[in-house]
Description:
By secondary structure, this protein is mainly alpha-helical. The protein folds into 3 domains: 1-70, Arc Repressor Mutant, subunit A, CATH 1.10.10; 93-157, no CATH class; 160-234, no CATH class. It has helices at 10-23, 29-42, 48-55, 59-67, 76-80, 86-92, 97-110, 117-128, 133-142, 144-150, 160-183, 190-215, 227-234.
Amino acid sequence: MECTVKEIDDQTAFEIALMENIQRKEFDPFEEGKAYQKYVMEYGWGSVTELAQKIGKSPQLVSARISLLNLPKDHFRDIRDSKLNVSQATELASLDTEKAGQLADRIIDIGLNKAPRDVLRGVVNLVKQGLPVDQATTIGLEQPEYAVWAGTQAHARVNPQEMAREQIELTLSKALKGIDDQLAYIPEGEENQKWVAFVRFPLHELVDNAKNIRTGKPLKKFEFVTTKVQKSNEQ
């Protein structure tokens, strides 16, 4: 039997081995990223785009896998243990290593790793914009719609103090709406009046004053009417 031995150079051998490992799914995302990094940066055999074409992947995927190497090594295990998925890790990898590690720990601790990717993208963007990790993740957990919106504001800068003022006002407003929703289930009468007079009205005043503090307007005095309820309590 005749056989032909063909010599190949190191680059071609690397490419063949890389494609075989990818097809057999023998790489985890970090090993994949390391291989891509070696090809492009360490050995200098081609650009991300050229490598992507040779292995049948998109340049975006190749870049994303390389970016995973920016994460602290401690968090490689979080992906292997399914505490973070690859998409989430890719979002985190856009931060510097220290911030990425802090944010990864925090989102796992508070369960934000169960949130949709666009919420996490917004949280990452809030951190990029200057918010502390704790403040950004609290917004992602309690006000995911705002976090999603923040994810679209790529070049904005956020003042943590101003953000805190807005979040206080928004928290009070949501509480007021929640009270109004629940009051619909309490029949008209003395108890309903007590809830309105001593809880709903004061909270409404707090919402107004939160907005006034934030915008620098004069504060209002508490002037809600409780006379009718007070008289009924005295009887």
